[in-house]
């Protein structure tokens, strides 16, 4: 069973879909079998990966019934990387999705999809509604994405409180993998100051060390529906997400060695 990681944010337009695509691509480069799953009714990842060209079928069709995993999981040219869309949503399907979120079928469906992969990265819709809550119920970890802007920072506790509530009441294994700051403008003094204050206001381990800078190449990559690393001029952006994937791995290893002293002691 793969690790299910939801990429979430209280605010919209902060780089969640971009993170799912580029972090997923980086993890697949390290040899992990990765599935990117679009769980946003607006179909952000479906657009970002040009999935509509290949299929209209997705998660909603699995939940309604009649479509198996083989029909919704689309393999890419890279054998380690696959993507599944949300499916074509008519207005009544959006309503159905909310129902599936409430009755637990969405959570069960996501866990089923995760089997057979090392990582399932979920592109969540913005906000802290029922859909996001049910995705957190299905997740091993969450990556809250935030811009280094005052109101974005102030709204982060809403998401962190939801994570805490889900953990306390339903899913004790849910971890905060790390808060990720994206579109960070290192040349903007206000942003730099805000960023430092923000980090100082919360436990340091809550944050990823790596931040994702604002780079025009991400926009260019989005236009071409590609991970940024696949653009000739996208090496800097690609490296940022490679570093993030490495940090994620490092955190996983640190957690494992932390809980399995006995194993480590008895290795040789
Ligand atoms: N680091 C970055 N530098 C510059 N532009 C970026 C960066 N990350 C993302 N973008 C651009 O910002 C826009 C919003 O990004 P994205 O769609 O990933 O956000 P989102 O959080 O998924 O949005 P939504 O909440 O609407 O789903 C996109 O056009 C994307 O190309
Ligand atoms: Mg999105």
Detailed description of the structure:
With 268 residues, the chain is α/β, with parallel strands linked by helices. The protein has one domain: Rossmann fold (3-Layer(aba) Sandwich). Helices cover 49% and strands 13% of the residues. It is built from 12 helices and 8 strands. It has helices at residues 16-29, 44-48, 59-64, 69-72, 91-103, 105-114, 130-137, 150-169, 189-201, 216-223, 235-259, 261-265, and strands at 3-8, 34-38, 73-75, 81-84, 119-123, 141-147, 175-176, 180-182. Strands 1, 2, 3, 4, 5, 6, 7 and 8 form an 8-stranded mixed β-sheet that branches. Strand 6 (141-147), helix 8 and strand 7 (175-176) form a beta-alpha-beta unit. Helix 5 packs across helix 7. The radius of gyration is 18 Å and the shape is globular. It starts with a strand and ends with a helix. The mean pLDDT is 93. Adenosine-5'-triphosphate is lined by residues 9, 12-18, 40, 44, 126, 182-183, 212, 214-215, 218-219, 222.
């Amino acid at each position: 069973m793969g690790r299910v990681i939801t990429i979430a944010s209280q605010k919209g337009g902060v780089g969640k879909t971009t993170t799912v695509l580029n972090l997923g691509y980086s993890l697949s480069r390290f040899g992990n079998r990765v599935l990117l799953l679009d769980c946003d009714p607006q179909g952000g990842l479906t657009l970002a990966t040009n999935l509509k060209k290949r299929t209209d079928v997705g998660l909603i069709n699995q939940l309604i019934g009649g479509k198996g995993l083989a029909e919704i999981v689309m393999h890419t040219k890279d054998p380690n990387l696959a993507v599944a869309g949300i499916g074509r949503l008519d207005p009544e399907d959006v309503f159905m999705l909310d129902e599936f979120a409430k009755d637990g079928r969405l959570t069960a469906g996501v866990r089923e999809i995760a089997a057979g992969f090392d990582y399932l990265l979920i592109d969540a819709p913005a906000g802290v509604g029922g859909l996001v809550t049910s995705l957190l119920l299905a997740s091993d970890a969450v990556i809250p994405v935030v811009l280094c802007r005052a109101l974005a920072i102030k709204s982060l506790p809403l998401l962190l409180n939801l994570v805490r509530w889900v953990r306390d009441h339903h899913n004790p294994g849910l971890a905060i993998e790390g808060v990720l700051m994206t579109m960070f403008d290192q040349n903007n003094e206000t942003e730099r100051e805000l960023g430092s204050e923000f980090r100082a206001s919360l436990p340091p381990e809550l944050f990823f060390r790596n931040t994702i800078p604002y780079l025009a190449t991400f926009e260019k990559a989005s236009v071409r529906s590609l991970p940024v690393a696949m653009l000739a001029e996208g090496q800097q952006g690609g490296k940022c997400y490679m570093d993030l994937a490495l940090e994620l791995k490092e955190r996983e290893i640190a957690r494992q060695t932390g809980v399995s002293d006995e194993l480590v002691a008895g290795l040789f």
